[in-house]
Amino acid sequence: MEDSDEALIGRYARGEAAAFDQLYKRHELRVWRYLECNLRNTAASDELLLEVWFALARNTASVESSARVRSRLFTLAHDRMAQWLEARGEPTTSEAGGDQPPVAADPVSALAQALAQLPREQREAYLLQVEGQLSVGEIAEIAGSTIGAAQGNLRQARLALRELLSEAT
Questions:
Q1: How confident is the model over 7-39, as pLDDT tens digits?
Q2: Which pLDDT value is given to residue 97?
Q3: 10, 97, 124, 164: most buried by Cβ count inside 10 Å?
Q4: CA pseudo-torsion sign 65, 68, 71, 73
Q5: CATH annotation of 1-92
Q6: From residue 67, how far is each of 16, 24, 37, 45 by CA, in Å?
Q7: Residue 103, exposed/middle/buried by CB under 10 A (0-12, 13-18, 19+)?
Q8: Number of H helices, E strands in the chain
């Protein structure tokens, strides 16, 4: 049986480095995809991913007492991304990325292009749910919004993606 994230962070806090490696392997790709789909900048996503994992490693005591490691990871990713955008003068919330339907040869590219079309709040909520496997309550907490706003963003994201992807086919 596989150890829970919370058990792994506890083992790491007690000095077992291999436990952190397991956590990293388990969540690295999901956190990176969350950053990359939001930023559409591979170099920045790589840089922020490292910052997220360094922050998690430095603050294991606070993470060990928190309810869910995954929620903490995506909170760190969200916060680092917002700081990165703000430092570059980019809005941390945005209107839709464009109004052109995605044109792609394959479904993965079409989805990436459709995600880029969503307003930032909708894209972040959708990716936190899909990549982070987070609850609506956790998404609201990370985004600093209400549960109703998070639900609305998820609903609007799904509707917009459905429409954009149907236009692409």
A1: 999 899 899 999 999 999 999 999 999 999 999
A2: 47
A3: 124
A4: positive
A5: 1.10.1740.10
A6: 20, 18, 26, 26
A7: exposed
A8: 9, 0
Q: Annotate 75-102 with DSSP letters as a single string.
A: HHHHHHHHHHHHHTT--SS-S-S-SSPP
Residue type at 127 in one-letter notation: L
Token reading at 139 = 């998404």
Structural contact between residues 161 and 126, judged by C-beta atoms closer than 8 angstroms: yes
- HSE (CB half, 13 Å, CA atoms) of 134? 33
Kindly tell me the burial class for residue 108, based on how many C-beta atoms sit within 10 Å of its own C-beta (0-12, 13-18, 19 or more).
exposed
DSSP state of 132: T
Res. 75: pLDDT tops 60: yes
State whether residue 140 is helix, strand or coil.
Answer: helix
Q: Which CATH number applies to 95-169: 1.10.10.10, 2.60.40.1930, 3.90.1570.10, 3.90.280.10?
A: 1.10.10.10
Average pLDDT rounded to a whole number, residues 71-85: 93
Structure tokens at 54: 């360094």
pLDDT above 80: residue 133 = yes
